[in-house]
Amino acid sequence: MWEQIQANRRRSAVLISMMAVILVLLGYVAGEALAPGGGGVLGLGVALIVFLVRLAIYFGAAESVLLNGAHAREIQRDDSPQLFNVVEEMKIAAGLPFMPRIYLIDDPAPNAFAIGNKPEKSVVAVTTGLLHRLNRDELQGVIAHEIGHVRNRDVQFMTLAAIMLGSIVLLAEIALRTMRFGGRSRTRSDSRGSGQAQLILLVVALLFAILGPIMAQLLYFACSRKREFLADASGAQFTRYPEGLASALEKISAAHEPLSFASKATAGMFIVNPLACAAGTDDSSSIFSTHPSTTERVRILRSMTGASLADYDAAYRRAKGAGVIGSTSLRDTSSQTIRAASAAGPIESRADAQSAARRAFGYLTVHCNCGLDISVPEGYEQDTIRCIRCGSTLPIPTASDAGPKDVPLTYRRTSEGWESLRCACGRTIQISPAFAAPFIRCNSCGRQITVEA
Amino acid sequence: MSIVLIVIAAAVVLVLLWVAGAYNGLVRLRNQLENAWAQIDVQLKRRHDLIPNLVETVKGYAKHESGTLEKVIQARNMAIAAKTVGERAEAENVLSGTLKSLFALAESYPNLKADQNFLRLQEELTSTENKVSFSRQFCNDSVLGYNTGIEVFPKNIIASMFNFGRRDFFEVKAETEREAPKVSF
After folding, report:
1. DSSP line for B89-105
2. For chain B, which terminal residue's Cβ has fewer other Cβ atoms within 10 angstroms, N or C?
3. CB contact, 8 Å: A241 with chain B?
4. pLDDT of amino acid A7
5. Cβ of A238 and B25 within 8 Å?
C-alpha cells in the first residue's frame, strides 16, 4: 500500500521537475534573447512570479470552482444511504484514514470525479445520472476508481501539474509577444557585431517558446492517462471485482448526453472524458488525450485473471507489451481471486437516487398534461409557471393559505408517486410515495399541512 | 587520518538514519495493521446492533417464521458471547448464514419487501457485511506487506532487534460464507 504511494510520489517529482526545467529554461532563454546580459535573470523572475501567482489563485480555488460550477450539493448518510455506504466500503478497502465528503450533481449525464486540495479534505462527486444507471457493483467500481485517485494522491498532483502547464503556456505567450515588439525596436539600435549572437539566441528562444508548451502538454497528458490506468488498477484491487468497473465504464461512455458543466480545462478530472463521451469519440485516444480509450480500459479490466495490482499489470502487459505499475509496488503483492457478483440490483439504487436528488436540491416538480415534468428551482416566487414545451400556464402546487396562521393548511394529493408542494412560507416540501400520515409539518415555518389522499 | 574519521562518522550517521527510517516504516505498517483489525470489530459490533431492529420489523409481516427469527437471535447472542478469536469467527459465520436465510425468506413476503424500514435495514446489513469483508481484505493486504517488510534482508535485522513478530492472516472459511443459503420452510 505505502509502496504504491511512494512510487507515485517519485514519479510525480520527476514529472514536476521536468516541467519546472522547461519553465525555468524558457524564462531564462527568452529573457537573455530580449535583453542580453542580465535579461536572463529578469526572465527567471518573471517565470517564477507567473507560476506563484497562478499557484496562489488556482490551488485553493480549483475545488470550489468545479463544485460551484456543477451546482454540486454535499449529501449526508440519510440523503442516499446506499451511495454513502458504498463510499464507506471503498474507504475501508483502501485503508484511508479519513472519510471523503460526498457531493451529488443533478445532471442526467453519468460521470464522477474526485477533487480536494488536501487528501484529508477529499471530495468524491457523482451525478444523479450515474446513480440512475449503475447497479451496486458498478457504482462500487466507479467509487473505487475515485478513491484510488485519492489514495494515490493524484488529485493534488494533477492540479499542480495543470498549474505548471498553464504557467508555461502563459510564459511562452508573453515571450512570443515581447519578441515581436522588442525585436522590432532593437533592429534600429543594434550594432552588427553582437547582432549575430543575438540572432542565434533569438532563434533558440523562439524554438523554446513554441516547443516548450507542446512538450509540457505531452508530458501532462501522458501522465494523466497513466494515472487513469493506475486508478483502474486500484479500483479492481479494492473491489476484487474488475467487471463492476468495466461495465460501469461501458455504460458511462455509451451515454451521449453532454455534461452541462464540463469544459476542456476540467475534462481531465472525470472518470471518463465527458467531452469525448458526448462527441462519441471516446474509442480513440491520441497523445493529446487526457484519458486512455475506454474500450482499451475495459478490455484490460476484463482480461484480468485475478484482482490484485500484479494481475492488472499482467493484463496491461498482454494488451500493451509493457507494464504500467512500478516493480517496487508489485514486490509484495500476489494474485488475488476475483469475488462473485453481488445480488443487489439497480432498482433500489434508482429510488434511492431520486429521493437523494429531491432532498438535496429541493426542486418542486410540476407535471404538465403534455407529459413534461418541469423542475421549478427553490426560491421561484410566482404562483404559476409556463410549460416550456406546450406553453400552457400551470399552477404551482401550494398548500392553500385561506385562513390565519394558526389554521392548518391543506394539500390534496394528485398521484401515488413523488409530489412536491410549496408551503405558504415559500418552502418546498417533498412527499414521498411511502408517505401515509394524515399531515406533514413544514421544516422552516413549522405549520402543519393536512394531506388529503 | 582526519578524513578517515570523517568518513567513518558519516557512515555511522547514515546507518543510524537508515535504522530510524526502517524502524518508523515498520511501526507505521504495524499501526496500519492494528487499525485494520479494530475496524473489523467496529463493523461486527454494528451488525449486532442492527439485528434486533431487523427482527422486530420482520416479525410484523412474517409471524409464522418465528423459527428462523429465533435462529438469528440465537446466532447473534452466540457471537456476542464468544471469547476466543476462533470461536468468534465461527459464530460470526453462523450469523452470516442465518441472516442470509432471513433475507431469502423475505422474498416470499411482498409486503415485507416493500417496507421502507426493511429495505433500509437490508441495505445497512448488506453494507456492514461488505465492510467486514473489505476490512478483512485490507487487513490481509497489510499483513502481507508487514510480513514481507520484516523478512527482506536489511530490514529483518531491525525487525529482530525491536521484536517485530510475524502476524497471522485473518482466516475465513470462504467456502461456508459463499455457500448458497439453506432455506427450510
Report:
1. HHHHHHHHHHHHHHHHH
2. N
3. no
4. 74
5. no
Question: Which residues, 6+ apart, have CB-to-CB distance to A67 below 8 Å?
Answer: A103, A115, A123, A125
A428 or A213: which leads in pLDDT: A213
Q: What is the pLDDT of residue B174?
A: 43
Q: Which long-range contacts (CB under 8 A, 24 or more apart) does A415-421 make?
A: A415/A367, A418/A354, A418/A355, A418/A358, A418/A365, A419/A365, A420/A358, A420/A363, A420/A364, A420/A365, A421/A364, A421/A397, A421/A449
pLDDT at A348: 47
Residue ranges per structural domain of chain A: 1-361, 362-452
- Residue B137 has its nearest CB partner, among A85, A93, A97, at A93
Residue of B nearest to A329 (CA): B145
Size of interface A-B (CB pairs under 8 A): 59
Q: Which of A452, A429, A223, A239 is nearest to A324 (CA)?
A: A223
Task: Give residue-wise pLDDT tens across range B88-137.
Answer: 878 888 888 888 888 888 888 888 877 778 888 888 888 888 888 888 88
One-letter amino acid at A363 equals Y
Average pLDDT in chain B: 80
Q: How far is B86 from chain A (nearest CA, A)?
A: 23
Crossing angle of helices B153-161 and B116-151, rounded to 10°: 100
Domains in chain B (CATH in brackets) are: 2-178 (1.20.1440.20)
Backbone angles phi, psi at A452, to 5 degrees: -100, 130
Beta carbons of A397 and A419 less than 8 angstroms apart: yes
pLDDT for residue A327: 61
The residue of chain B nearest to residue A348, with distances taken between CA atoms, is: B119
Grid coordinates given for B5: 574519521
From B4's Cα to the closest Cα of chain A, the distance in A is: 34
Residues 33-92, chain B: which have Cβ within 8 Å of A?
Answer: 35-36, 39
For A:379-438, CB contacts with B below 8 A are 434
Q: Mark yes or no for CB contact B178/A340 under 8 Å.
A: yes
pLDDT in tens, A65-106: 778 877 888 888 877 888 899 999 999 988 888 899 999 888
pTM of the model: 0.78
Nearest to A297 by CA among A277, A264, A271, A274: A271
Residues in chain A within 8 Å Cβ distance of B35:
95, 97
Query: How close, in Å, is residue B177 to chain A by CA atoms?
Result: 12
Would you name the residues of A annotated as active-site residues? 146
Looking at beta carbons, which residues of chain B come within 8 Å of A1?
A: 32, 141-142, 145
Instruction: Name the residue facing B32 among A90, A95, A348 (closest C-beta).
Output: A95
In the structure, what pLDDT confidence band is assigned to residue A284 with cuts at 50, 70 and 90?
low
Q: Is B130 on the interface with A (CB under 8 A)?
A: yes
